Amino acid sequence: MEAKKTRAVNLTEEELVYPGNRACAGCGLNILYRIGLKAIGRDAILVVPPSCLTVMQGLYPITSTQLSVLNVTFASTAAAASGVRAALRAQDNDHTKVVAWAGDGGTSDIGLQALSGAIERNEDFLYICYDNEAYMNTGVQRSGTTPRGAVTANTSIGGKRERSKDVASIIAAHSPAYVASCSAAYPLDFHDKIAKALGIKGLKYIHAHTPCPPGWQMEEKVAVSIARMAVSNGLYVLYEIEDGRMTLSEPSAKLLKKKSLPRVEEYLQAQGRFKELGSDDIAAIQSDIDSKWAAYRRDMAGAAA
Ligand SMILES: Cc1ncc(C[n+]2csc(CCOP(=O)(O)OP(=O)(O)O)c2C)c(N)n1
Ligand code: SF4
Ligand SMILES: [Mg+2]
């Protein structure tokens, strides 16, 4: 039976992030941080590497987060979270949750080795990667997850030439306890996936797509609708992987029944970072999306048969 979905009116009214923090207007991370902490609750220790999240959290005594947070070096997030769990175990504490929360740069590039090791050891914590698709905090440098064609401070003419790294698939190949993907456009889905993940022992990984108005070069007011568009055109897929089996979450699951998907152009043209994309690039991006969905249709029809 499918788990009951949380509705906005059922969210706890308790806020664990103070208002007036240092996030930019329209920041997707800020939306997910507020809602995500409602799912995590007070009995938790966060482990966070350098990122926009550390800036949002701020410096004591004007920190915005009401939980214990351990700020660690870039490369060590998953190793530090493993250490926090070991320290809790030494105190016979099996109730405090450990949650590592890092950016795409800190996950797809610099922290990947420590994360890979922690999954292989099946450490008991939740790792959340918020993916704004670049090193935003230091002025928009390309990361492993920056999409092809996006202009950043350190890509040359034409933007990034390489495809983005599919971090969630790399993690899934390690067979951790749970893998899910989420989007800032669907914060209640994020809330429920966190709640589910925290009920599972072992290493859980959630990858969340988070729009960033300055980095994606768009108006603050369209940030959520742009993130929603990435899901509705099939570019960004919401799913869960449990016991090696992938299931699509709504609204991505609905796309399986569509013969063709909305074209990706509108999403790309709405963001200044893609302004150097040519028609060949756009066709190549569309072709990648279409191939991915052809594979989903094949695999999921096979699973249903
Ligand atoms: C070893 C190391 N290299 C570089 C930095 C500088 N630095 C701080 S935050 C940051 C960007 C992090 O990018 P990401 O993980 O994607 O998070 P975002 O800033 O996008 O939120 C960088 C490069 C650092 N703190 N430590
Ligand atoms: S730079 Fe982007 S990710 Fe960072 S706080 Fe601003 S909107 Fe959020
Ligand atoms: Mg980033």
Descriptive overview:
The chain has helices spanning 28-40, 52-57, 77-90, 104-109, 112-120, 167-172, 187-198, 213-216, 223-232, 252-255, 265-269, 279-304; strands at 44-48, 68-71, 97-103, 126-131, 178-183, 204-209, 239-242, 245-248. Strands 2-1-3-4-6-5-7-8 form an eight-stranded mixed β-sheet, sandwiched between helices. The longest helix is centred in the C-terminal third of the chain and has 26 residues, at 279-304. The model has no long low-confidence stretch (mean pLDDT 95). It has a single domain, classed as Thiamin diphosphate (ThDP)-binding fold, Pyr/PP domains (Rossmann fold, 3-Layer(aba) Sandwich), CATH 3.40.50. The relative contact order is 0.13. A hairpin with a 2-residue loop joins strand 7 (239-242) and strand 8. It is an alpha/beta fold. It is globular, with a radius of gyration of 19 Å. The two termini are 20 Å apart. Helix 1 (28-40) runs parallel beside helix 7. Bound molecules: thiamine diphosphate (TPP), iron/sulfur cluster and magnesium ion (MG). Thiamine diphosphate binds next to helix 4.
